Amino acid sequence: MKYLAAYLLLVQGGNASPSSQDISSLLESVGVEVESDRLSLLLRDLEGKDIGQLIAEGNTKLASVPSGGAAVSSSAGAGAAAGGAAAEEAAEEAKEEEKEESDDDMGFGLFD
């Protein structure tokens, strides 16, 4: 991932086709040890490809990945009851959080 990030950073900086040496010097400038076999694998995979097009293709694939969320009830009555219960729970949690927040400091800070 660090090699791809360095590659993309160099592309954003104006280097349309970063070389292995470009990426290595960038990573080494911030103290990252470079594994030449991993770097060469990345460059081999990206050779002859447009990075903008690869990103666009990745975005379309990412859009189809489920991101979780609550299950939708099949009946409207059950959904309304669940929604009401969830609203009550949220109100109770907000009250509890207000009580807990007052005890957060306890007389000392995180970095004391």
Automatic annotation (TrEMBL):
<dbReference type="InterPro" id="IPR044076">
    <property type="entry name" value="Ribosomal_P2"/>
</dbReference>
<keyword id="KW-0689">Ribosomal protein</keyword>
<comment type="similarity">
    <text>Belongs to the eukaryotic ribosomal protein P1/P2 family.</text>
</comment>
<dbReference type="InterPro" id="IPR038716">
    <property type="entry name" value="P1/P2_N_sf"/>
</dbReference>
<keyword id="KW-0687">Ribonucleoprotein</keyword>
<dbReference type="InterPro" id="IPR027534">
    <property type="entry name" value="Ribosomal_P1/P2"/>
</dbReference>
<dbReference type="Pfam" id="PF00428">
    <property type="entry name" value="Ribosomal_60s"/>
</dbReference>
<feature type="region of interest" description="Disordered">
    <location>
        <begin position="82"/>
        <end position="112"/>
    </location>
</feature>
<protein>
    <recommendedName>
        <fullName>60S acidic ribosomal protein P2</fullName>
    </recommendedName>
</protein>
